[in-house]
Each structure stands twice: as structure tokens, then as C-alpha cells.
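QA checklist item 7 of 12: single-chain prediction sanity check.
[x] sequence parsed
[x] length recorded as 156
[x] structure emitted
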Amino acid sequence: MGHHDRAPGFGYVTYLASTPEKVWEALTDAGLTAVCRGRRNVSDWWPGSRWEHVRADGSGVVDVVGRVVEGEPPARLVATWAEPGEEGRENRPFRVSFELRPYEGIVRSAVTPDDPADESERAAVAAGWPAVPSRLKTLLETGRPLPQEPWRVPAG
């Protein structure tokens, strides 16, 4: 990953033709996250609550778990993020924040993950996190999810 991709502590910024309320709903509503990502984000989104990223295929498989650190609808969401069973490990769980700011009919969405612990985590962050606002943007602006998973697109 090149030095220009992401400075330390810097997020991925996307601008959406939407409202903070609609972006917040797309991030946190189980039905909309299932449409957007093939998995449901399940939680009440209160600080301290657990959340789960559950496959929407009926298998009930949970791919990611975490806790809500801060929740200020529709402006700011901070949550931890770990694979099931990794929550107690050192340097886990990983933390990510979402900040939504309206400006004259558009929304500035900033996704800021923790600084990665190592190169493999850095590669995973670079592949996965920019896809989240891209998927939200497409769904909210067109009414349809992206036809492909963005992290599968070859970089070179």
C-alpha cells in the first residue's frame, strides 16, 4: 500500500447525495445492510451494546462481532470490530468510526479505522474499508446495491 493511500489516523471520505438520517439507516438497519452487503448488522446501537454482522443467507453465521463505543444518530458511530473468538486478543478488537455531516443537500461521510497493527491488517483495511461508503453511496443514490463486491476488483 502506497504512502498516499491513507495517512495515519485519516479516514476515507465519501460525499453522498442523501441525508445523514438515510446514511445512518443504511449503516445500521438490518434489512438495508443485508441488501447492501449480503449481511445484516444486528444491534440496538446503544453505547455498550454488542453488534453482530450476520450472514443474510439464513445460515445464521456471524462473521464479525463488536461493541458500540459511541452512538449519536445520525452524526457519529464508533464501534469495535473483531472476528468471533478474537475479541480477547491483544490489539483486538479493532475500532472504526463513522462521521456523517450534512452540507447543502449532500452528506460528507468519513470512515476512520484504527491504524492497522501489521501489514496483513493494513492490506485488509485498504481492501475493505473504502468499499463501505461506496456501497452505501450506490444504494442510496441509485436504489440498487453494487453488482460486485468492491474488494474483488483487481487493483492493478
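[x] summary fact logged: The longest strand covers residues 62-72.
[ ] second reviewer sign-off
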